[in-house]
Amino acid sequence: DAGITQSPRHKVTETGTPVTLRCHQTENHRYMYWYRQDPGHGLRLIHYSYGVKDTDKGEVSDGYSVSRSKTEDFLLTLESATSSQTSVYFCAISESSVSQNYGYTFGSGTRLTVV
Amino acid sequence: QKEVEQNSGPLSVPEGAIASLNCTYSDRGSQSFFWYRQYSGKSPELIMSIYSNGDKEDGRFTAQLNKASQYVSLLIRDSQPSDSATYLCAVIGGSNYKLTFGKGTLLTVNP
Predict the structure, then answer these.
(1) Beta strands in B8-98, from DSSP E residues, in sequence order
(2) Inter-chain residue contact B103 with A40, CB threshold 8 Å
(3) Which residues of chain A are under the pLDDT cut of 70?
(4) Alpha-carbon span B109 to B20, nearest angstrom
(5) pLDDT for B67
(6) Chain A CA closest to residue B2
(7) Which end of chain A has a smaller Cβ tally under 10 Å, C or N?
(8) How far apart are CA B46 and CA B89, in angstroms?
(9) Nearest CA distance, B36 vs chain A (angstrom)
(10) Cβ pair B73, B87 in contact under 8 A
(11) Is B3 exposed, middle or buried (0-12, 13-18, 19+ CB in 10 A)?
């Protein structure tokens, strides 16, 4: 996807280990988001950022932390991975004004398996 | 809890027919509405946005919004097998910038 890349694309990790997923954008958008997608649950917001060092929790934030030290990078960390965190993780970016929101652009996703 | 509801399907239509996808939302303050298409194993792709009551057309796609009924729909005319995908309805409420997604409707277009 143009302007937004996620790494790694696939990862298998063991229960209890920390894992960091990276989202990198070249669009200079202010807003960045981490979602997870699971069968039967759809896309659920984990954390989001509205600027450098400005982050907040989404609806499923337990067990996750984020950091944004630069406009272009948004990191998602699973502090101690559990099998319930096996999922597909999507990063998204958005360019919004006060009067209108233009929707999100999604990265290609990271498929994470916790064994 | 702000919710976005969609019929999970699957919705099956023959090639060339009109596919109609529906979505309801619970937050009356919602102001921005989107339809995403997601092919299996791929990321969601924005195909339509709508902000005002009425219809918005883009090629074979028409989005319809009725804020009084809290209802959004997507019509796909002349459906093609390449339209087979999961369609996600998404809503932004009030003054925040967070999208809430429905669980998606799986559309299958049969040749």
Answers:
(1) 11-14, 19-25, 30-38, 45-50, 54-58, 61-66, 71-76, 85-93
(2) yes
(3) 1-2, 97-101
(4) 12
(5) 94
(6) A59
(7) C
(8) 10
(9) 10
(10) no
(11) exposed
